[in-house]
Design brief:
single chain; two-stranded antiparallel ribbon; alpha/beta; about 10% strand; eight-stranded parallel barrel; about 450 residues
Length: about 450
């Protein structure tokens, strides 16, 4: 086997995700790498779409993040998506039963749809189901002509003349719903495209207010599916701009509307749980990853059509394939265990960032998701220095500062934030980003003065 392929199959192509951040404590739980030998072919779990009768893989390939080539691969300093690795991951996913691929015009700095189109073009169009979105977030895309241009460009980039699943992307309040879709006639256009057969299933993704969710479910539009954030932490303990998934799912189930699941790992947080939570999970299933628990929970409700996973590296794909080939439904005693895990995570003051990158690029150069990721990781690993009198303070202080400087370039750190709040309306989690940046900047300055 060629070395590049060998490393990817074993997960070696993902050192960045497998190794803890520089300066942070290594995870005490070393999770066993999954290989293709561990995954039976022909065992993927499927759910039947109640409207079309088609069988959709419970594991959906989320295309918000892709592997990139090493730094320096491009002349302009931009990340270059590793198309070869993406192609190989798509080939493997299809071979082992994954048939749902979800993208958007805004993912991967606008390059996701093009990458997906290239990765799938050699496969028969009837062998997979394609989902993309009307991501007209920017005011310049609110006019009907601009939104329709986005729609047709998606077809061009994805090399298709129809969409299996098309979403009104990330709606959550009435004012923006009216501006983006109703007043400009875009909703009427999408309904006409569905009538013409170029959209086979029309749905929407939700981040927002409970009252708006209730309105959308009762407004008279025959939605074919709805995409919601569901995981064992948000099931009963949603924060910020989110609504408890237990409520959202129940409303969909009683109307027989299939649920497509996003953020089953909460931006990776449920794959990087704290020591207490990991101990509980490993005591129950020593051989399974923390991520597999989250994916089993997200896929267990019978009304879930597919669970989207942003599988950046081959190791992510292989672990998820093993989880869903076939999936073992979470038992009642395991639900109780996961509720206890969720409660243990609530003891920590995490910043609820899911690393979706909607806040990027920052006009002042901050690496907003990277800063939050470092803070949460150190909090998770008990390396967030707090009281100078603590026995572990000096070690934790050094770990935090060293990891911060090595993972976030100086010109992209929290102290560069001026509080312009241009990022605030873009955040699906409603994080008060500038306030958190000021807190982290103050923490870093205090730690430096404690030298």
């Amino acid at each position: 086997m060629e070395r590049r392929h060998f490393l990817k199959v074993l997960g070696g192509g993902s050192l960045a995700s497998a190794v803890p951040m520089v300066g942070c404590r290594k995870d005490a739980f070393q999770e066993k790498a999954v290989s293709l030998r561990d995954i039976p072919k022909g065992q993927m779990t499927y759910r039947t779409d109640p409207h079309t009768g088609e069988k959709i893989s419970l594991l959906g390939f989320g295309c918000m993040r892709f592997p990139v080539k090493p730094i320096g691969s491009s002349d302009d300093g931009e990340d270059v998506i590793d198309q070869e690795m993406v192609n190989e991951m798509f080939d493997t996913a299809l071979e082992y039963g994954v048939n749902y691929f979800d993208t958007s015009p805004v993912y991967c700095k606008g390059r996701s749809e093009h990458t997906v189109g290239l990765g799938l073009e050699k496969h028969p169009r009837e062998s997979y189901y394609l989902a993309t979105k009307m991501s007209n977030f920017s005011p310049v895309t609110h006019p009907k002509e601009a939104s329709i241009a986005m729609y047709h460009n998606s077809m061009k980039e994805l090399r298709t003349d129809y969409f299996d699943y098309y979403l009104v992307h990330s709606v959550g309040n009435m004012e923006l719903w009216q501006k983006r879709f109703v007043e400009n006639g875009v909703l009427d256009f999408l309904l006409a495209e569905k009538e013409a057969g170029r959209i086979r299933n029309l749905g929407w993704s939700f981040h927002g207010e409970k009252e708006f969710f209730d309105y959308m479910m009762s407004c008279g539009i025959p939605w074919d599916f709805v995409q919601i954030q569901l995981n064992y932490l948000d099931w009963k303990h949603a924060t910020g701009r989110n609504v408890n998934a237990e409520y959202l799912y129940a409303e969909l189930e009683k109307r027989n509307v299939p649920a497509v699941i996003m953020e089953p790992l909460l931006g990776g947080r449920l794959a990087r749980t704290n020591y207490k939570a990991m101990t509980m999970l490993k005591s129950a299933r020593p051989e399974e990853s923390a991520a597999s628990w989250a994916f089993r929970f997200a896929g267990s409700p019978p009304g879930v059509l597919t669970v989207l996973s942003g599988m950046t590296y081959m190791e992510h794909l292989l672990d998820n394939l093993r989880t869903y080939s076939p999936m073992e439904t979470v038992r009642e005693d395991e639900k109780e265990l996961l509720e206890n895990v969720a409660l243990s995570m609530l003891e920590f003051q995490y910043i609820s960032c899911t690393e979706c990158d909607y806040c990027m690029p920052c006009p002042y150069g901050l690496d907003i998701p990277g800063i939050f990721m470092h803070y949460n990781r150190c909090l998770n690993e008990n390396n967030l220095p707090q009281n100078p009198q603590d026995e572990n303070y000096r070690k934790a202080r050094r770990a935090f500062l060293v990891g911060y400087d090595r993972s976030i370039p100086r010109l992209r750190q929290a102290n560069r934030c001026i509080g312009c709040d241009l990022c605030l309306p873009e955040c699906p989690q409603r994080i008060r980003i500038s306030e958190e940046m000021f807190k982290i900047s103050a923490l870093v300055e205090r730690l430096k003065q404690d030298a």
